[in-house]
Amino acid sequence: MTEHRETEAELAEDDFELSRKDLEAINRAIDEQDGPALDRLLEHEHAADIADLIEQLTPPRRRAFLSLYSGEMDGEILSEIDDSIREEVIEQLPHEVVAEAVREMDSDDVVDLIEDMDKSEQQAILAALDDSDRAAVERSLTYPEYSAGRLMQSEVVTAPEHWTVGETIDYLRHEDWLPDQFYHVIMVDPRRHPKGYVTLGKLLASRRETPLREITEDSFRTISARQDEGDVAYAFNKYHLISAPVVDDHDRLVGVITIDDAMSVLDEEHEEDFLRMARVSDESHVSDGPLQTARQRLPWLVINLFTASLSALVISRFEGTVARLVILAALMPIVASTGGIAGTQSLAVAVRALATRDLTSTNARRVILRELAAGMLNGLGLAVILFLAGTFILGAPMIGVVLGMAMICNQIVAATGGVLVPLGLSKLGVDPALASGTFVTTMTDMMGFFAFLGLASWILI
Amino acid sequence: MTEHRETEAELAEDDFELSRKDLEAINRAIDEQDGPALDRLLEHEHAADIADLIEQLTPPRRRAFLSLYSGEMDGEILSEIDDSIREEVIEQLPHEVVAEAVREMDSDDVVDLIEDMDKSEQQAILAALDDSDRAAVERSLTYPEYSAGRLMQSEVVTAPEHWTVGETIDYLRHEDWLPDQFYHVIMVDPRRHPKGYVTLGKLLASRRETPLREITEDSFRTISARQDEGDVAYAFNKYHLISAPVVDDHDRLVGVITIDDAMSVLDEEHEEDFLRMARVSDESHVSDGPLQTARQRLPWLVINLFTASLSALVISRFEGTVARLVILAALMPIVASTGGIAGTQSLAVAVRALATRDLTSTNARRVILRELAAGMLNGLGLAVILFLAGTFILGAPMIGVVLGMAMICNQIVAATGGVLVPLGLSKLGVDPALASGTFVTTMTDMMGFFAFLGLASWILI
């Protein structure tokens, strides 16, 4: 950790974004309604940077920008704009601009663009496509949300399995509809069942008369169009796939998923887990307004109000104890909050391990026992510190003993709860990142107050 | 969120891992010392699955496995094994097996394997490589840890910029050292400065006489060997790069980074942020033992002991108030803990937005004001609930008023603190995921107790 920090000082910095100076010039051009200046400033910028710019503009400037720049808006920029404001952007663009942009897109990007729109808006956009593209997009939309079928592009490069390298190269040279990016030629049988694939590198490096069958890759595996996109991303990362054919329920080739799309999904899944663990909706975005932000966060706050009331109830059972020794009120949050941290630690490791399939039924028992032991060890360590603090700072060794004993109980509950709760939720089919935190901290809060006040009323009073 | 859950039921399941039945058969073969059965069981398994298996075995079974299976251990399996146990595995394998495995690896995998070893172990492995491979690995190791120079592979396919498609294909057909996976031919000038690149797809689809210059890609950008690997992964994801040439300080081509490596880094960086936010060392792994686990988690627990003592100090200033109205002791955690949740929510959004460069100096002021307003709104909402609960459940409207007012203060502190703290830490060059949580929850705890008890002693007593 420290090492990482130290070496980072030596590393080069490049922020991969528009410079502050560029941004100021762009803002000036927008404010002065200077379209040509804007075009000039953005001429060499990547679509992703232009999309970032649009996201970061204030809403009035964004409207001004769109009316000045609409001639230059293309499919690439539109695909890059974040979901949270894309609909707003599309509404502000002239219909012809959107239609033209959509015609340039690959089918997977069109699907991504329109899947959250309502039927009539979808139809307006689909009408801009030619028949075969529209059919491809409509077929994708028949698959469930977050499935491989929604993620795939329909543009696939195939060859009959009996072809040679030379035949394949001649075919590729004569086709003019090839996708922008493709990494494999997929070999299919006459019923379009994928049988293997060949990398373009091997195709280029082999002699013309080599049969494709002799240079296929071991890494070949097909993906069902109904597979969850998170599993697809996991498989790409685990098996180092670059592209993978997608098949329908009859094992027929319907599309291909490429690693750049799998990488985006991996990024989104991580972001979702990160935000869910912090009890934030994964729809949250920095460009949201205050009302939207407040509304997204309120539900978990209200739930916490309820779980915190359970702790209050626990404490209220010991009002007599607290009344007789008021210092207990000051000390009791120590046990509860340290338990909360330990629970979150154990939980985070378990949630990640579940996501990466490192925590399975094979090793669950071992991991639970490991947590139990680690909780006991840390409980003991913290108890020693608390006993010393009680003795030498508060001058009350018995209070130190009570704090320490309560801490040991709560650390054990925290560490084991941190792995049992996500394991249980995942068995029930609930995303462990979503609800585990609330369960675990409620447990550690209640246990922390109960153990401390219970032991105090038994030992001290 | 709910929608996501609902549709997942329709999605196909494939766990991309060894089945439970296979695992049992493998364990049996290990226990019976049946090497041939083990070979047969693992014959068609992917290296990544075998590596997962090795990670999940208990340490004694792992030793037995390695002595039975050592003949089959190859470079691919060795590269896939998690850092946390790889050194242990290498120590248990015969030296010739490791040497043979390393010879098969790409230079980037060798670097990954040996970078954490001490000098003498590194030398033993480097000695197994031939001269040019060893030189490549040694050059990579001269770049800082976590840099593009460590991530790149040295095997690069280049062509002079003036070549045609035909010349390039002829050259590729006659080379026998081509890397397993490559996606671009990089055009270099006579001093090995990269000038552009051509996708293999374009190379295959173009006529032989086409000059390479006419089919280069716009996406071309070089990466400095000193660039942080996290920035590299960010750039790959943002600009949809598939491979990118890496250059030294003199802009000379020294290697290439491919998207599969960038995807692994993206995955690791997310995992690191996730664990850091939960105050767990990013070295944590489910295969760690109890002692190791306890030691990794103890530092943050001790820090929390200290910060929780600050809250205890705040409360102890109000001992007189609590003594006169003991119910305050039961109620005070409500304000503090709900503030903690709100702080974590705001923090998580800010930490992600900083990582994705969505929170910049351009919009920082707007985001801070947005958080202020959202905190006020949610504080008001929660205050209404607390007032009603105070009135109708506790029968004490004034206690409800105090709870509500304290909640409003603490929600504002939580929401703004959640964005100001990570912004401040990131300005100071500290990873905001690492320390923000402790700062923010200390703030919300102290503020929660102070506002509630302060208002109570002013209004109620």
Spell out the helices and strands of chain A N to C.
HHHHHHHHHHHHEHEEHEHEEHHHHHHH
Can you give the helix content of chain A as a percent range? 55-70%
- Based on the coordinates given, report the CATH architecture of the largest domain in chain A: Orthogonal Bundle
User: Which sequence of strands runs across the widest sheet of chain A?
Assistant: 1-2-3
The number of distinct helices of chain A, counting runs of at least 4 residues, comes to 22
Distance between the termini of chain A: 46 Å
Rounded average pLDDT of chain A: 91
The CATH H-level homologous superfamily of the largest domain in chain A: SLC41 divalent cation transporters, integral membrane domain
CATH topology of the largest domain in chain A: Tetracycline Repressor, domain 2
The pair of chains with the biggest contact is: A-B, 153 and 152 residues
Shape of chain A: globular
Q: What's the multimeric state?
A: homodimer
What number of structural domains do the residues of chain A give?
Answer: 3
Give me the count of strands of chain A: 6
Reported for the largest beta sheet of chain A, the result is:
3 strands, mixed
Q: What would you call the structural class of chain A?
A: mainly alpha
Low-confidence stretches of chain A: 1-9
Which value, in Å, is the CA radius of gyration of chain A?
Answer: 29 Å
GO molecular function, one term (chains A, B): metal ion binding
InterPro entries (chains A, B): CBS_dom (IPR000644), CBS_dom_sf (IPR046342), Mg_transptr_MgtE_intracell_dom (IPR006668), MgtE_N_sf (IPR038076), MgtE_transporter (IPR006669), SLC41_membr_dom (IPR006667), SLC41_membr_dom_sf (IPR036739)
Subcellular location (chains A, B): Cell membrane; Membrane
Family (chains A, B): Belongs to the SLC41A transporter family.
